[in-house]
Design brief:
The chain is α/β, with parallel strands linked by helices and 213 residues long. It has helices at 9-25, 35-41, 61-64, 84-96, 111-122, 130-146, 152-170, 172-179, and strands at 49-54, 72-77, 101-107, 184-190, 197-203. The protein binds zinc ion (ZN).
């Protein structure tokens, strides 16, 4: 029933980047946002990508990638930290809905990363369940510090790479799908000021790094 069946990880990735380019240029097409699309996909969904990103309100998935209903299976947490429910949701998108692409979406000036950098630097921690977020970002911050990084962009990139690695380490279903060539996992870094999404890391996608938008 779906209008644009997506066959390969590469096609899904290019479709996502094309939407981001329209958004950046200020000429969005708002595809799949009308009543006809709503009716068409009511019986079943087959999103072309699973998007796992930071909850930041400036990172609204369907807006920044200029997509609509039934296009993206979205999972977002502060600082894109993961636990069992997140892993289960991503596996559902890949295994049950057949999405060929998983995107980890981080961004500059991320509050979760900044809070973790401050906690590590001061030897303090956050209260309540925010502490869980900080603790899960901590390995990325420690790795970036150990590598001698001081710039925000380097901490963000490290955390995106770490999230992609952790995803494939913890989810056998996802790792197997990548191994089989059915799914790609990419890490993108989003710039709040200009709306561009940049490729940080990719698995299962034969693209040279830096070639993305
Ligand atoms: Zn964030």
């Amino acid at each position: 029933m779906t209008e644009v069946p997506i066959a390969t990880p590469r096609e899904a990735f290019e479709m996502l980047l094309a939407g981001n380019r329209r958004f950046v240029a200020g000429s969005p097409e708002h595809p799949n946002q009308d009543a006809a699309r709503r009716t068409e996909i009511a019986p079943a969904q087959s999103p072309f990508a699973v998007l796992f990103g930071c909850s930041d309100s400036r990172l609204a998935a369907e807006i920044i990638f200029d997509r609509g209903l039934g296009d993206l299976f979205v999972v977002r947490t502060a600082g894109h930290v993961m636990g069992p429910e997140v892993l289960g949701s991503i596996e559902y998108g890949v295994s049950m809905l057949g999405s060929p692409l998983v995107v980890v979406l981080g961004h500059d000036a991320c509050g979760a990363v900044a809070a973790t950098r401050a906690a590590v630097a001061d030897g303090t921690t956050a209260g309540g369940y925010v502490r869980d977020v900080v603790e899960k970002v901590t390995p990325s911050v420690l790795a970036a510090r150990a590598a001698g990084h001081t710039e925000d962009a380097d901490f963000i990139a490290e955390h995106i790479r770490h999230t992609v690695d952790l995803l494939l380490e913890r989810s056998r279903a996802l790792a197997d799908a990548v191994e089989a060539g059915r799914v790609a996992v990419v890490g993108l870094s989003y710039r709040l000021a200009d709306g561009t999404a940049h490729l940080v890391t990719a698995r299962g996608l034969d693209l040279p790094l830096g070639s993305a938008a």
